[in-house]
Amino acid sequence: MVVGAFRKLRDAVRGDDGRAKAQGYLKPIDVDEIARRMDLARLSSDRGRQELPPSDSPGLDSIEQQITQTLEGEWAWHGAELINNLRAYAARLIAVSVSTELANLRLGAKNTLAQLRNAHHRAEAELGPLGERFVAYRNELRDFQEANRLKRTARPPSNRYTTLGLLVLLVGAEAGLNGLFFAKGSSFGLVGGIGTALGISFVNIVTSFSVGLLPLRWVNHRNIVVKLFGFLLAVGVIAGLVFLHGFAAHYRDATALVGEDRAFAAARETLLASPFMLADLNSFYLFGLGLVLSALAIWKGYTFDDPYPRYGAHWRRAEHAREDYSDEHAVLFDDLEEIKEKTVAELDAGIRRIPLFPQQAANVRAQREAELRSFQAYETAVEAAVNRLLAMYRDVNRAQRQSPTPKYFSTQWKLPRSFLRDAAVLTEIAESPTPPIDAATALEELRTLSESVIAEYEALIVKYPHPTQMPR
Predict the structure, then answer these.
(1) DSSP secondary structure string, 69-121?
(2) Fewest CB within a 10 Å sphere: which of 77, 80, 179, 410?
């Protein structure tokens, strides 16, 4: 399709003088048609009666020149077509040349090998330290798991920002609600009540979260000493929180009864004397609300990280190191694997194609040789056609004239040269002075290059494996 379009464009640029359509490439020359088109019989008779050309004429007259120029024009057009066709044959021979195919595939394989070898230096500088860090953290995690008899994966921690927001919400909610309870006895009203409640709520929520995050999780530890210490500390802190909320409830009652100045001392006395006796139902609500929010903060602290102490930190450190190594590994090896696969596929395709090249090249050369022989016969036909047309002209001219004919009438016309000896033609059909590469030798080299590419890639992947394939 592309060649056809090119030919049409070439014909449009060249112009159409009727020769191409009349003759066609290597089409037999119709001498009779040319004679009729030139009205050769009438012209030769007229010029014979006029004694033209003169007997002493040294060369062809205008009619004879028109004959030769017409056929020479056809011959020149065919010669240009021959050169174009020979260039096409040369391109086809290059396409099925073992040497050309081998050179192209060799260049691609060597470029891939160079990229793989350069990747060793890049991997050593960028991937090596990340791999060493990952292995170190992974071994630390494994040792920690073995020492503490942990076989499960670490539980994912809560989102830190979500947890912080929830703690702030708990402090605000408890302070707001408690502020309503404390407002009754405060001289500053609701503002004073909220101020008092804010301090209690902050201590309550922060302490509750801390007891869930630290001592309560220590109870899960394998070491009996740590377990017992965590249990006792957690019980003590929780008891302190209960005492804090009890004191807050008694403090509210005391504020309402004796005022803020003496409320602290009065609340301490009533708490020690009768801890479960409260004067106002709202004080019970205050006590219960504090315990509920404290329990929620304790649960949030307990689930903030893995229940086993320090297990989550070890796990995350190893996981982050693995992700860093994996990301850098993907950046380096994804492109390399694609390049390697493409190169190996091209080499395999070349190995399949090359055995077909000698026969294909022989077919192209046979077609080219046949066209050269056809063109040689065409040139002979051009000379014969010109001489026949000249003979037709001269015979009628000779019969009509009284004077002798010019001496050149007996001379046969010859082409000025043969296109087959033209420099452009000789260049296109010239064979390379370098002996052709044997197909078997080329195949062996391509197999070696393919194995080298695969071996280089595998050496790199073995030295810097994917995290899932790293030796334990």
Answers:
(1) HHHHHHHHHHHHHHHHHHHHHHHHHHHT-HHHHHHHHHHHHHHHHHHHHHHHH
(2) 410
